[in-house]
Design brief:
The chain has about 260 residues and is of the alpha/beta class. The protein is built from nine helices and seven strands; from the N terminus they run βαβαβαβαβαβαααβα. The chain binds nicotinamide-adenine-dinucleotide (NAD).
Length: about 260
């Protein structure tokens, strides 16, 4: 199957990593469904992309099965097939554990963990037909705990495990399920929650000594969705400048080298 005739659905595609991912698939010749809860930003992004023949904008909240099912049906009605689902839509509440309300906890889990489950169920029959792939966007916060991330980090840890659960079962259908765990990327989400002090802490903890770019995360996502990763499933690929690989000592070493 030529990559040029393939179709991807990217959730949370109105901006940030999701928008960069949609553009990456388009640049490889795929058609793309851009799904987002924020209809206004989505409409602007859709128009700016300027490829109406190969894109469809789908307004939906990934936490609601009926909205996601309608979106998948509209995408397949338009392009006739589905080859990749990228579960990228996510939300963050960064607060001390004991100040996080039950509503905040529930919403973060509903979007970040239930959302990918819901979208997987809606997309799986179509992906089984094309022997397609799912890529879930987890986070370094799903692998290592840190302050203020009781809901966010737990949702992402759950998503990393959901990736394995789904790989175990969907392999029988020929569908691969993987995840990308980004480190910090300068998107609207990060700007909202990363203070100057936290930015400095991140630099200290990252061997490559910088934030990642949306496009760098999109490359990893595209690789896992494409046939180049045809024997990879159940894997979470860290795309984090080396954050997950390290322990203490980076700032000290850097100081010595200077
Ligand atoms: N930026 C980072 O540093 C970073 C690091 C690790 C992981 N991530 C993950 O990458 C993904 C994308 O993050 P980003 O930084 O581009 O964020 P972002 O906030 O810039 O973009 C997220 C998009 O998802 C949409 N969205 C939110 N809730 C939704 C819902 N319920 N239904 C449909 N769409 C919804 C938003 O409207 C937005 O367009 C998220 O899953 C996030 O957790 C981001």
């Amino acid at each position: 199957m030529s990559e040029a005739a393939k179709v991807a659905l990217v959730t949370g595609a109105a901006r940030g990593i999701g928008l960069a991912t949609a553009k990456k698939f388009l640049s490889e010749g795929w058609s793309v469904g851009l799904l987002d809860i924020d209809g206004e930003t989505l409409a602007r992004a859709h128009e700016a992309i300027g490829a109406p023949g190969r894109t469809i904008a789908l307004v939906a909240d990934v936490a609601f099965p009926d909205q996601v099912e309608r979106s998948v049906a509209a995408l397949v009605a338009r392009f006739g097939r589905l080859d990749a689902l990228v579960n990228n839509a996510g939300t963050a509440v960064f607060k001390p554990a004991l100040e996080t309300t039950h509503e905040e906890w529930s919403r973060v889990l509903a979007v970040n963990l239930s959302g990918p489950f819901i979208a997987t169920k809606a997309a799986a029959p179509h992906l089984a037909r094309t022997r397609g792939a799912i890529v879930n966007i987890s986070s370094i916060s799903g692998a290592r705990a840190s302050t203020l991330r009781v809901a966010y980090g737990t949702s992402k840890a759950g998503l990393t495990h959901l990736t394995k659960q789904l790989a175990a079962e969907l392999g029988e259908l020929g569908v691969r399920v993987n995840a990308v765990a980004p480190g910090p990327v300068d998107t609207a989400m990060a700007k909202q929650v990363h203070s100057p002090a936290i930015r400095a802490d991140y630099h200290d903890a990252i061997p490559l000594n910088r934030y990642g770019l949306e496009e760098e995360i999109a490359e990893a996502i595209y690789f896992l969705a494409s046939d180049r990763a045809s024997y990879v499933t159940g894997h979470t690929l860290a795309c984090d400048g080396g954050f997950a690989a390290t322990g203490i000592g980076l700032p000290t070493l850097r100081g010595r080298g200077r």
